[in-house]
């Protein structure tokens, strides 16, 4: 079985981190590793990219226009539960994009997260579902509503193994995806919520097994500059952790920054 390709799904804000991730993977993974970046068409020309990186416009993913329009129409109602149409659109893009680009399986990641080369090398050859110590009951409630038994541990590790053939086809179809958001998410008044990672992980894990990961989700709090860290800083961090997330758009405060420095110093997953 060929090693799994890596698909990075990025919006405009996380694109600099996604490019840094692609650079890191190109430098540290096998030369034949298939790397794919999905990002909005309007971002063409906004970035340089390592040789060998395949770039796909979000708009080329099947049913993109219909899903975007449908989610935009739900915008006010989604906002009542602290979600945006773009948040759900990114989830759809990862699911439908994987089916479109790598139907036999892929490692799919968020654009704001970089995984260690050691972890990815192991995962590409012997796939396992990445898990964290978190529990998100709203994601589990939706899984049960779809007839999927959720894993006790969260699969929301900002990236995971995807096997599109194992996911119910309706979830990766534009109309089916919108129906789930309308009927099961909005219809639950916020008690159920969609997570592509929790759904896929719960389906795949019984056959592949799981692998707990050490993540540092707020690596951006360690640097007030708001820029992407250098390659050497990224490499050092990924010798401590399995993955780091650089979430410049998320909330900052003095207390969060202090906590980030302390927890990073003691190598705590956070």
What does this molecule look like?
The chain has 10 helices and 10 strands. With 270 residues, the protein is an alpha/beta fold. The strands form 3 sheets. It has a 5-stranded mixed beta sheet, with helices on both faces. A 3-stranded mixed beta sheet has the order 5-10-9. The protein has a two-stranded parallel sheet with strand order 6-8. Helix 9 links the parallel strand 9 and strand 10. The longest helix has 17 residues, at 85-101. The protein is globular, with a radius of gyration of 18 Å.
> How many extended strands?
10
Overall, the morphology is globular
How large is the share of residues in beta strands? 5-15%
Distance between the termini: 34 Å
Instruction: Give Rg in angstroms.
Output: 18 Å
Order of strands in the sheet with most strands = 3-2-1-4-7
Give, in order, the helices and strands: EHEEHHHEEHEHEHHEEHEH
Oligomer: single chain
SSE-based structural type = alpha/beta
Which key terms come to mind for this protein?
alpha/beta; 10 strands
The gist of it:
By secondary structure, the chain is of the alpha/beta class. 41% of the residues lie in helices and 14% in strands. The strands form three sheets. The chain has a five-stranded mixed β-sheet with strand order 3-2-1-4-7, sandwiched between helices.
């Amino acid at each position: 079985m060929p090693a799994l390709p890596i698909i990075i799904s990025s919006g405009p804000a996380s694109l600099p981190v996604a490019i840094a991730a692609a650079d890191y993977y190109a430098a540290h993974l096998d030369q034949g590793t298939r790397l794919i970046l999905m990002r909005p068409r309007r971002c063409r020309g906004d970035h340089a990219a390592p040789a060998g990186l395949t770039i796909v416009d979000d708009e080329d993913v099947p049913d993109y226009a219909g899903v975007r329009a449908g989610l935009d129409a739900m915008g006010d109602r989604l906002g009542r539960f602290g979600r945006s149409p773009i948040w759900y659109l990114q989830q759809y893009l990862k699911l439908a994009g994987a089916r479109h680009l790598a139907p036999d399986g892929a490692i799919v990641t968020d654009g704001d997260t970089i995984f260690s080369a050691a972890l990815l090398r192991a995962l590409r050859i012997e796939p396992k579902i990445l898990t964290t110590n978190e529990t998100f009951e709203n994601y589990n409630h939706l899984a049960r509503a779809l007839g999927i038994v959720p894993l006790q541990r969260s699969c929301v590790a900002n990236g995971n193994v995807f096997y599109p053939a194992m996911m119910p086809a309706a979830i990766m179809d534009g109309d089916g995806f919108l129906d789930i958001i309308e009927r099961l998410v909005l219809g639950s008044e916020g008690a159920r919520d969609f997570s592509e990672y929790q759904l896929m992980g719960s389906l795949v894990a019984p056959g592949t097994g799981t692998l707990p990961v050490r993540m540092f989700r707020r690596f951006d709090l360690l640097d007030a500059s708001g820029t992407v860290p250098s390659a050497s800083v990224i490499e050092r961090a990924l010798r401590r952790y399995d993955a780091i997330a650089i979430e410049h758009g998320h909330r900052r405060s003095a207390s969060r920054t202090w906590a980030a420095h302390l927890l990073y110093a003691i190598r705590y997953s956070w």
